[in-house]
Amino acid sequence: MSKKPESPSRIAENRKASYNYFFEEKYEAGMVLQGWEVKALREGKVQLTDGYVVIKDGELYVIGCQINPLKTASTHVNPDSVRTKKLLMHKDEIRRLIGKVEQRGYTLVPLNLHWKGGRVKCEIALARGKAEHDKRDTIKDREGKREVERFMKSKHR
């Protein structure tokens, strides 16, 4: 029996988000996509770094998530690479998020896109923006870890 190779679960990641925000809570939401978008996601033609989540009329939408169409896209479909995409979550979760986002300083940020049971899911985070000195601390910590790893690597030789 030959089994189809499973596609990688992680499609795209927003690495810039952890540099710019502190994450309070993380949520998983489904995404409403068109057929050409799913095909492009399978090829990895997506970019999340400029994406953000807005709440409009009690529903969640991702803005700025760019999915580039494949060259072989159908001629009867007009692909819009920066189309606003709707996120699917339970009403109670959305109400809880609305309450928290209305507090000062909170925003919703998409962290990654991944496959779950053949469907595309978007992990979003309730986040608070970092100040400039916090970003410098993040860089300093990262550099310190690199120095320690280099030192440990040279010691083991």
UniProtKB/TrEMBL annotation:
Keywords noted in UniProt: Cytoplasm, RNA-binding
A Pfam family of this chain: SmpB
InterPro entries per UniProt: SmpB, SsrA-bd_prot, SsrA-bd_prot_CS
Region: Disordered, residue numbers: 135-157
Coiled-coil intervals: none
Calcium found in the keyword field: no
Organism superkingdom: Bacteria
Localization per record: Cytoplasm
Protein role: Required for rescue of stalled ribosomes mediated by trans-translation. Binds to transfer-messenger RNA (tmRNA), required for stable association of tmRNA with ribosomes. tmRNA and SmpB together mimic tRNA shape, replacing the anticodon stem-loop with SmpB. tmRNA is encoded by the ssrA gene; the 2 termini fold to resemble tRNA(Ala) and it encodes a 'tag peptide', a short internal open reading frame. During trans-translation Ala-aminoacylated tmRNA acts like a tRNA, entering the A-site of stalled ribosomes, displacing the stalled mRNA.
Protein family (similarity comment): Belongs to the SmpB family.
Record protein name field: SsrA-binding protein
Native source species: Ramlibacter aquaticus
